[in-house]
Design a protein that fits this description.
By secondary structure, the protein is mostly helical. 79% of the residues lie in helices and 0% in strands. The chain has a single domain (2-221), classed as Up-down Bundle (Rhopdopsin 7-helix transmembrane proteins), CATH 1.20.1070.
């Protein structure tokens, strides 16, 4: 089952990766790089999981797609600069890579690093997520006059859309944590359920037509 999910994840990542690449390859902007990094990170992590153990651990696949989804959530709104988002993405990728490499380094059977890697990855993912959005809030309060301009309605739509997606993501992270606590088959069922929800969320965030309330804005303009 985990092999089927791993292949499905790779197909989803590659679909949106090549879609973005073909659409924006002539405009190598930080925003484009962030979206490309989401797919590249997801594919790389899944392949590394399959190389490290076959079949891959479903719990580790869950961590991988959590990181990929978070990269898309770190994508800036249209009125924000992309530098801060790109820095957060690089920090997240670096921390996840360190966690993965360290887990391979200590897998000498002297002790099990499974739980330690899971909890470390959750801490990294949530820390980067929280730090980024705290920085966004502080920046937003410093430029609050921007929300009294003519385009404030569209900016608020984008911001509110990101807020909704972020709340959904955090709720799913909570369910993912529960999958660690639940024993046996109950935990596995929770893992597979969370994987399906993350795949759906990645598809929603990865679709340009639905990204950051863009569809709402275009519909209102029309």
């Amino acid at each position: 089952m985990s092999v089927i999910i791993a292949v499905s994840l790779i197909v989803e990542y590659l679909f949106f990766f090549f879609h973005d690449f073909n659409k924006n390859k002539s405009h190598l902007t930080p925003r484009f790089v962030i979206r490309i990094m989401a797919g590249a990170t997801g594919v790389t992590l899944v392949i590394m999981e399959m190389m490290g153990a076959y079949p891959p651990e479903s719990r580790y696949l869950l961590l991988d797609i959590m990181a990929a989804v978070e990269i898309l959530l770190l994508y800036p709104c249209s009125f924000e600069k992309a530098g801060k988002s790109l820095g957060a993405v690089i920090a997240l990728d670096g921390a996840i890579a360190i966690s993965f490499v360290f887990s391979l380094f200590v897998s000498s059977r002297s002790f099990s690093f499974r739980s330690e890697r899971e909890f470390f990855s959750y801490i990294v993912i949530l820390t980067v997520f929280a730090a980024y959005f705290v920085a966004v809030v502080i920046k937003r309060l410093g430029g609050i006059r921007m929300f009294f301009r003519n385009v404030a309605v569209w900016h608020n739509l984008e911001d509110y859309s990101r807020f909704i997606y972020s709340m959904v993501y955090l709720a799913m992270v909570g369910l993912s944590l529960c999958s660690i606590i639940l024993p046996g088959d109950a935990g596995e069922i929770m893992v597979y359920s969370c994987l399906a929800m993350y795949m759906l969320l990645y598809a929603i965030l990865g679709s340009p037509a639905n990204f950051r309330g863009g569809a709402i804005r275009r519909a209102c303009i029309v």
